[in-house]
Amino acid sequence: MIEISGLTKAYGDTRVLDGIDLTVADGQIAAVVGPSGAGKSTLARCINLLERPTSGSITVSGQDLAALSGKQLRLARREIGTVFQSANLLRRLTAAQNIALPMRHQGVPEAEIRRRVGDLLERVGMLQRANHYPSQLSGGQRQRVGIARGLALQPSVLLSDEATSGLDPDATRAILDLLTELRDDLGVTILVITHEMDVVRSIADHVAQLDHGRIVEQGAVADVVRRS
Ligand code: ADP
Ligand code: ADP
C-alpha cells in the first residue's frame, strides 16, 4: 500500500506540490492525471526517491520513505520500480542486459540474474528479442523491456511515469493490458502517472486529478470520469 500524506515539494518559494493526500491499496491500479506543469513528474520523483519531499510523508508497505536515509533508503528504493517515458533504456546494452542491470548493481548472483531475466523476458513477451538492442526494437517493445527492468528487483510498487506517451493507440493498449496482467499475476500495486484521460479510463480503479500542485478531485474512476 502507498499512503501519501500532506506531501509538499517546493523549489525556492514555489510550491510545486502542495499538500498531496493519496492512498493506493495493495494490488490496485491508481492513476494521477493532470495537465502539463501540474506537478506529476515531481510527484513521481518523490515517490521513487529521486527527490526528497520538502514536508509530508510517503509510506510504502508501512515504511515512511521520507524518514529514511543511508542504507535503509537504498533498500527502500528497491520497493518501487519505475517505468519511464520512452523506456529510457541504455542504447549500448541488449534487452537482457538492460533488464539485468539493476540486479547487477545490487550484487545479485549471476545464476539468479539469469533465471530472473529469463522469467521477466517471458512475462513481458520479449523472450525472442533478448539480444536485440533498443534501436532494433519498436517503441512498444522498448517499453516492455522498460517494464521488465522496473520489475527486476521485485518491487511491491510499479510506478509508470508517462510510459505510453508517444506510443500509437494499439501499442498503448498492449502496454496497458500487460500492466493489468502483471498486477493480476504478481499482485504488484501500480501507480500510473499520465496526462491522458483515455489511459485512466482503460486501466485505473482509482484516479486523482492533479492541478497546480494540488489534488482537485479523486475517487473511483467511474465517478470521477462522469463528473469531469
Ligand atoms: P508535470 O509533470 O505535471 O508536467 P512537473 O512536475 O514537471 O509537472 O512540473 C511542475 C512545476 O514544477 C512546473 O511549473 C515546473 O516548471 C516546476 N519544476 C519542476 N521541476 C523543477 C525544478 N527542479 N526546479 C524548479 N521548478 C521545477
Ligand atoms: P553479458 O555479457 O553482459 O552477460 P548477456 O547478454 O549474455 O550479456 O546477458 C545479460 C544478462 O541477461 C545475463 O545475466 C544473462 O544471464 C541474461 N540473459 C541473456 N539472454 C538471456 C535469455 N535469452 N534468457 C535468460 N537470460 C538471459
TrEMBL record:
CC per GO annotation: plasma membrane
Domain ABC transporter residues, every copy: 2-228
Keywords: Amino-acid transport, ATP-binding, Cell membrane, Membrane, Nucleotide-binding, Translocase, Transport
GO MF annotation terms: ATP binding; ATP hydrolysis activity
GO BP: any one term: amino acid transport
Purpose: Part of the ABC transporter FtsEX involved in cellular division. Has ATPase activity.
Assembly information from the UniProt record: Homodimer. Forms a membrane-associated complex with FtsX.
Family from the record: Belongs to the ABC transporter superfamily.
Descriptive protein name: ATP-binding cassette domain-containing protein
Organism: Nocardioides humilatus
Coverage span on the entire protein: 1 to 228 of 331
